[in-house]
C-alpha cells in the first residue's frame, strides 16, 4: 500500500481510538482497523479496563481468514498478558499478514516487545505511520512511569 493509503487507514484507526474515551481510562484510547484487499473489514477500539483492547475487538468483529489482512493500530500491540490477553499474541495466533503502528508503546511492560514478537513470528511491521497525529492525541493517556 502507498504511504497515502496507510495514512488514510491510520486516520480511521485514530477516529476509532477517540470512541474509547472515557470508558477505557486509565488504559490508553487505542483504535484498530483491519484492511483486506483495500477494503476495511473490521474496526475496534479499547473498551473499559478488563474488557477487550482495540485489536481484540477488531478481531472479534471479523470471523474470516486473516490471510492478506493488514492491521492499523494507533499504539503498538501489547506483548504481555494483563487483565486481557496479549494483542501481539492474538495477531500471531490468527496469522495476520502485516501490522502498521502509529507509535511505539512507552509502557515499560511493552516498549518495543510487541513489535519484536510480531517480527519474530514473520509478520511484517511498519512503525510510525501518521505518528505525529497519533502522539498528539495519545500522549496525555500514555503510561510514563
Count the helices. How many? 5
The beta-strand count equals 5
Overall outline: globular
Fraction of helical residues: 25-40%
Structural commentary:
- Strand 1 (31-36) and strand 2 (39-45) form a beta hairpin.
- It is built from five helices and five strands.
- Helices cover 32% and strands 20% of the residues.
- It is globular.
- The model has no long low-confidence stretch (mean pLDDT 94).
- Strands 2-1-3-4-5 form a five-stranded mixed β-sheet.
- With 145 residues, the chain is an alpha/beta fold.
- It starts with a helix and ends in a 7-residue tail after the last helix.
- Helix 3 (87-93) runs parallel beside helix 4.
Briefly characterize the structure.
By secondary structure, the protein is of the alpha/beta class.
Topology of this protein?
Layout (H helix, E strand, L loop, with lengths): L2 H17 L11 E6 L2 E7 L8 H7 L8 E7 L11 H7 L4 E6 L9 H8 L3 E3 L4 H8 L7
Helix pairs in contact: 3-4
Question: What are the defining features of this structure?
Answer:
32% helix; 5 strands; alpha/beta; 145 residues; five-stranded mixed sheet; 5 helices; single chain
Amino acid at each position: 500500500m502507498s504511504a497515502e493509503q496507510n495514512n488514510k487507514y491510520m486516520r480511521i484507526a485514530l477516529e476509532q481510538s477517540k470512541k474509547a474515551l472515557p470508558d477505557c481510562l486509565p488504559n490508553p484510547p487505542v483504535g484498530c482497523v483491519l484492511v483486506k484487499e483495500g477494503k476495511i473489514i473490521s474496526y475496534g477500539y479499547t473498551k473499559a479496563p478488563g474488557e477487550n483492547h482495540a485489536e481484540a475487538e477488531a478481531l472479534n468483529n471479523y470471523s474470516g481468514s486473516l490471510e492478506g489482512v493488514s492491521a492499523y493500530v494507533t499504539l503498538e500491540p501489547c506483548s504481555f498478558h494483563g487483565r486481557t490477553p496479549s494483542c501481539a499474541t492474538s495477531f500471531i495466533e490468527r496469522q495476520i499478514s502485516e501490522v502498521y503502528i502509529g507509535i511505539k508503546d512507552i509502557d515499560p511492560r511493552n516498549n518495543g516487545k510487541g513489535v519484536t514478537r510480531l517480527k519474530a513470528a514473520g509478520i511484517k511491521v511498519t512503525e510510525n505511520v501518521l505518528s505525529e497525529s497519533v502522539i498528539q492525541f495519545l500522549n496525555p493517556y500514555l503510561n510514563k512511569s
